[in-house]
Design brief:
The structure is a homodimer of 253-residue chains.
Chain A: E1 3-8, H1 21-29, H2 31-35, E2 39-43, H3 44-51, E3 54-56, H4 64-73, H5 77-85, E4 87-94, E5 97-102, E6 107-109, E7 123-125, H6 131-146, E8 153-161, E9 168-176, E10 182-183, E11 199-200, H7 202-211, E12 222-226
Parallel strand pairs in A: 2-8
Antiparallel strand pairs in A: 1-12, 2-12, 3-7, 4-5, 5-6, 8-9, 10-11
């Protein structure tokens, strides 16, 4: 019988640019708790703020396209300029939202630019510039501080909408020390029957699960996940980039 | 500090048409364990088998369209006929997979028809005919058998692919006793800033989390989820149907 659990880490202070997130997490969770090597799920806004991936709207001069979109959508043209700057491609523009492919390759609403969860109304939060690198750096920082038999894994998350379903679920945007996909293709089920298309996005499932352990207004960006040892590795691994479909495999082009 | 956990229920016997799934689950998990009112996540194949939502391929006569698709995709024309019978619309046909909208309104690969996880190579497993009704019936059956302060919730799951990301994650296809969506739109975050687009598909997150508590070859269709009380209700509620975007809201038409 397998078991899995997710526990929010309380008392994470507000994160400011330049903060050492590894140190903040170790202080809040305690080194003993981290020495057992859980997966540490971190809401991306904490990572972005620590890295200074922020834009002050008062400093943005919207261009022609942003002004047109702002007119059509009844939104702030400066915010739309930031969203366009973060996009490699605009897939859809309707119902007050832009669906874009970000410069990282993520397909999501508004290039992942977050106008809420900020500390003032002028500042918007971007996605981390290189989230897999952020995960690796935070992982190394935590491992250095806590020691232990096995370095914890680090999973950076964001909430994404879905094409045909209401609501958002958290997904993995950065990852170190855990495989993003669990590949059962070619293996057999309990009856010896082939598992035809079983390729599980375990990092996305872990991100979704982490979000169930916190309340959205609680200021709890960090959640510890236990019971995922079978997907964890000593190596950092290829990260969450592995989850992205190549553009030519996109079913909707 | 919030916490969430998922524990697979061992020793569920192979399910056969006509089995009383409520009775099977109570016998395997024990009535005491269920009396606390967890969310009971059940892989849809167990529900479909109990309800006899199965097709024997040897009894299927493929029509013209199924024969054409079988030729193009190098697949069994009888299986393609079953997939077409379960579909209200074929969205894409490529790379050996049909993406369809099922008669229930789910968008998924191959209309959710499962050629693995069956007990023999001739039988394929369909989605339950009315998964929200199945969830309500199983919930009522379990509540009758165990009593307790609060009836457990029932969540029926399947593994779906995603438009722009590799791999599958489990989602909710049937639900009773739990809200599918947690709506924070219009509320504020820890800093008093508005949460602009925070509408969380908690039933899908719970489905994804449940899958992390089992191994795909373990024959463990049932997983108990604790810590979701804030989303549970005495009423059955509107079910997983609430998660489906209306066709006219589909961003990809």
């Amino acid at each position: 019988v397998a078991a899995f659990s997710a526990t929010a880490v309380g008392s994470i202070p507000p994160i400011l640019p330049g903060d050492d997130l590894a140190r903040v997490i170790v202080a809040a969770a305690g080194p003993e708790r981290l020495r057992s090597g859980p997966v540490i799920a971190i809401a991306h806004t904490a990572v972005s703020k620590a890295e200074g991936a922020l834009v002050e709207l008062s400093q943005v001069s919207p261009g022609e396209r942003a002004l047109e979109l702002a007119e059509a959508q009844g939104r702030d043209a400066r915010l739309l300029q930031v969203i366009l700057d973060e996009a490699s491609e605009v897939l859809r523009s309707e119902r007050g939202v832009l669906i874009t492919r970000t410069t990282h390759g993520f397909v999501c609403a508004n290039s992942g630019v977050d106008a809420s969860n900020s500390t003032d109304r002028d500042t918007v939060v971007l996605l981390p510039r290189r989230p897999d690198e952020s995960a690796r750096r935070i992982r190394a920082g935590i491992a250095r501080l806590v020691g232990g038999e096995r370095a914890p894994a680090v999973l950076i998350t964001d909430s994404f909408g879905r094409a045909w379903r209401h609501g958002q679920v958290d997904v993995a945007i950065g990852l170190a020390g855990m495989g993003a996909l669990d590949d059962w293709r070619g293996r057999t089920d309990a009856n010896g029957m082939p598992l035809l298309a079983t390729w599980i996005a375990v990092a996305d499932a872990a991100a979704a699960a982490a979000d169930l352990a916190r309340s959205k207004d609680s200021g709890e960006p960090v959640v510890l996940l236990d019971g995922l040892e079978r997907f964890q590795s000593a190596q950092d691994g290829p990260g969450a980039a592995e989850l992205l479909r190549a553009i030519e495999e996109d079913l909707f082009r």
